[in-house]
Amino acid sequence: MRVEVAYALPQAQAQSIIAIDVEVGCTALEAARRSGIDRQYPEINWQTASLGVFGKLLDAPAQYSLCEGDRVEVYRPLLIDPKVVRKQRAAQKQAKAKR
After folding, report:
1. What whole-number distance in Å separates Cα of residue 29 and Cα of residue 4?
2. Where are the domains of the chain?
3. Nearest-angstrom CA–CA distance, 64 and 70
4. Strand, coil or helix: what is 41?
5. Looking at the predicted structure, is the pLDDT value of residue 19 above 70?
6. CATH (residue range 2-98)
7. Each residue's pLDDT tens digit, 35-87
8. Which of residues 17 and 14 earns the better pLDDT score?
9. Which of 54, 57, 89, 99 is the most exposed place for a label (fewest CB within 10 A)?
10. With bands split at pLDDT 50, 70 and 90, how would you rate the model's confidence at 17?
11. Beta-bridge mates of residue 34
12. Using CA atoms, how far apart are residues 14 and 28, in angstroms rounded to an integer?
């Protein structure tokens, strides 16, 4: 069956999508590894990488069996927690309002 593996970079609008053929029962992690996308992007670490299918984060990518046409997405690690960013922005806004 045919599936895709995708990875996007923060500085580029485009993403890399690699289409591969896998057997029925192939897991998301297996497909991602087989795609070889980590050779193109050596920063990918399969031990820590988060994976999803069509925007839905997978809790157990090594157990998730793919379906025909699925797109496995390899997510970059967050550099900063979004909650922290929102708190910082709110604090800055409050500081400006007090001036």
Report:
1. 12
2. 2-98
3. 11
4. coil
5. yes
6. 3.10.20.30
7. 999 999 998 999 999 999 999 999 999 999 999 999 999 998 766 666 877 88
8. 17
9. 99
10. very high
11. none
12. 22
pTM of the model: 0.75
Could you give the 3-state DSSP secondary structure of residue 44? coil
Q: Cα angle at 34 between 30 and 40, to 5 degrees? A: 125
* Amino acid identity, position 44: I
The Cβ of residue 15 has, within 10 Å, a number of other Cβ atoms equal to 11
The 3-state DSSP class for residue 90 equals helix
Pairwise CA distance, residues 97 & 91, whole Å: 10
* Residue that has been written with the tokens 């797109």 in this structure: 71
State how far Cα 86 lies from the chain centre.
Answer: 22
Question: Does residue 31 register a pLDDT over 80?
Answer: yes
DSSP letter at 58 equals -
How far is residue 79's CA from residue 66's CA, in Å, rounded to a whole number? 29
The CA distance from 1 to 20, in Å, is 8
pLDDT at 14: 62
